[in-house]
Design brief:
Helix content: 25-40%
CATH topology of one domain: Jelly Rolls
Protein name: Alpha-L-rhamnosidase-like protein
Number of strands: 16
CATH class of one domain: Mainly Beta
GO biological process, one term: carbohydrate metabolic process
Shape: elongated
Pfam family, one: Bac_rhamnosid6H
Radius of gyration: 28 Å
Keywords: Signal
Length: 579
């Protein structure tokens, strides 16, 4: 090969390698695009301040900014570090995201150090993790930051759930010039297609609060809490999914989260290490299909669905009693009551194998039908006692292991607010609806979920006990002497004190329940039919909407003088109405 030939060969080889490199780069993963939006929120109130003699123009933080530093520096907020200035801002409602600070020109161009503490309550924002006995944590999301602020610039911090932020100077020998502070709200920009409005403003606010609670948790995946428990807890997802169906329709966050938890859970393991959570995964898959009829999606999970059902069938003794291992969990308040946990798990097993029978038809697996029928009959022979526990009793009624009216009369309607949890309260409401006790269920919604709103909540909490409300201060006020600090003083299990999440999606049950039972809207036939059967209870009128795969159903129901209900119904094309 002569020189020219060699040169041509090298050039060709180089071109070939470059082509390969470009091709390889084109096939490399590019990460993912964030479809959420960022909205900047101005503080609504200055809740508390100290070292006021070292603060000027603090009220300017209540004026909307533009996120841009400038050379003019009009009406800047001044913080004199020698006076130990600190203050707490209230952004008006629970948010997911962080904080943006814009600075002006201050003496000495070296950055100035401050401390920011985020809180879901004023109490949490005012407590530092380093404080003796403080129960606040940085678990899952950092809520406490020390950071350097630039001269004439901007900085952003945080990725948590909060409503309040405490700002305090760390550098005591500097004077800080601040232009603005905004909360960064990060959320999915999706319309509220579902709605609920009645002559009872308390129920209206509760419906909206439940919807907003879940909306905040619809982040990268469907989380249970935006401060803590920023994970896919598949059992916790069930009430959230029911709320999403009633408010937002078929959002991608649900299948995305179901796919994730299945992909990281190899059989015979239980999802999240909890046997009931694997059962809830099956129930959610079934309900999602019934609502939207996406057979192609369901078929992707066919092998896992039947593999999981077969694994569950090995956890039954000769008398039909469940013998599930792993984490045996329903909800937190039920945990110490082993008899109740068993009753709940037995009920879930019955519910799951009823669903399994339907899967054999939907997914064309007739060879398993006889086996599942036999398993179901075996399970139905063992009927446990709920041992006085409302959560377990509700599942016994829903699974039809016990008579719905007897369950309601003996356990659910007695001392109705005692033993209700934010998670399984949804199933208590469902069981009371099965017994036709709509007024009793609505009273529980008003009194139990409404009590959180009375205490300043803008989202529903991980747990709540009515006894906590006695002599309790509001979460949006500085804890007062002689008053109970409801965030710091209560909580249990993994959510003691300030670790307690005040935005937990599993607590949204009333939103789904009111849409289903009071508006009376249920979807059937894989999303192709709707049944309208309102139950107004003690309401005079109710109106609202419900998203379906064919469009939005709109209804208005109004009681007539003689007691009947007049309904105006708007049905989208393609959706059949069932009698």
């Amino acid at each position: 090969m002569n020189f020219n030939s060699q040169k041509l060969f090298v050039q060709c080889l180089s071109l070939f390698m470059l082509t390969l490199t470009i091709s390889a780069l084109a096939q490399m993963p590019e990460g993912y695009k964030d479809t959420r939006v960022r909205e900047f929120v101005t503080a609504k109130k200055i809740v508390w301040a100290s070292g006021e003699e070292g603060i000027t123009n603090l009220e300017n933080l209540l004026k909307a900014g533009n996120g841009q530093a400038d050379l003019v520096g009009k009406n800047l907020i001044t913080l004199d570090g020698s006076k130990n200035p600190a203050f707490v801002l209230d952004f008006g409602k629970e948010l997911h995201g962080g904080i943006q600070l814009v600075t002006g020109m201050f003496e000495g161009k070296n950055p100035i150090k401050i401390k920011i503490t985020l809180g879901e309550s004023v109490s949490e924002a005012m407590n530092s993790i380093s404080d003796s006995g403080c129960t606040a944590t940085n678990d899952h999301a950092i809520r406490e930051f020390e950071l350097m602020l630039p001269w004439l610039g901007k900085i952003e911090i945080g990725n948590s759930g909060f409503r309040f932020a405490k700002i305090e100077m760390v550098d005591t020998d500097r004077i800080l010039k601040l232009k603005e502070i905004s909360a960064i709200s990060i959320y999915r920009d999706i319309p509220y297609l579902g709605s609920f409005k009645s002559n009872d403003e308390r129920l209206n606010e509760i419906w909206q609060t439940g919807a907003y609670t879940v909306h905040l948790n619809m982040q990268d995946y469907l989380w249970d809490g935006i401060k803590r428990d920023r994970l896919v807890w598949v059992g916790d997802m069930h009430p959230e999914v029911k709320t999403i169906q009633a408010v937002f329709g078929p959002n991608e966050v649900v299948p995305k989260s179901l796919d994730l938890i299945q992909s990281i859970t190899d059989l015979p393991g239980w999802m999240n290490g909890i046997s009931s959570y694997s059962m809830w995964w099956l129930l959610i898959q079934h309900e999602w299909y019934n609502q939207y009829g996406d057979l192609a999606y369901l078929e992707k999970h066919k092998a896992y669905i039947f593999g999981l059902l077969d694994e569950l069938s090995t956890n039954i003794d000769k008398k039909g009693k469940e013998t599930l291992d792993g984490g045996r969990f329903l909800d937190w308040p039920t945990s110490p009551n082993k008899e109740a946990v068993h009753a709940g798990l037995q009920s879930l097993m019955v519910m799951v194998f009823k669903t399994g029978l339907e899967f054999t038809t939907i997914l064309d697996e007739p060879s398993k039908k006889a086996t599942y029928e036999k398993t179901l009959k075996k399970l139905q022979k063992h009927v446990p006692d709920p041992n006085g526990n409302k959560s377990a009793a509700a599942l016994l009624a829903i699974s039809e292991l016990r008579d719905k009216d007897k369950v309601n009369n003996k356990w659910l309607s007695q001392d109705p607010l005692s033993g209700v949890s934010t998670f399984y309260g949804y199933y208590v409401l469902q069981a009371r609806a099965l017994a036709g006790d709509y007024v009793g269920a609505m009273d529980v919604i008003r009194d139990y979920w409404g009590a959180m709103i009375d205490l300043g909540a803008t989202t529903f909490w991980e747990d709540f006990n009515m006894e906590w409300a006695e002599n309790a201060g509001r979460i949006d006020e500085v804890p007062a002497p002689g008053k109970v600090d409801i965030h710091a003083d209560y909580g249990d299990y993994c959510y003691v004190g300030l670790r307690h999440s005040l935005c937990h999606g599993w607590a949204s049950g009333p939103t789904a329940w009111l849409s289903e039972h009071v508006l009376g809207i249920t979807i059937h036939n894989n999303g192709n039919a709707v049944k309208i059967a309102p139950n107004l209870g003690d309401l005079q009128w109710v109106e609202g909407s419900y998203p379906t795969k064919h469009g939005v159903v709109k209804v208005r129901h109004e009681k007539q003088p003689h007691g009947s209900v007049k309904s105006d119904i708007d049905i989208p094309n393609g959706l059949n109405v069932l009698d």
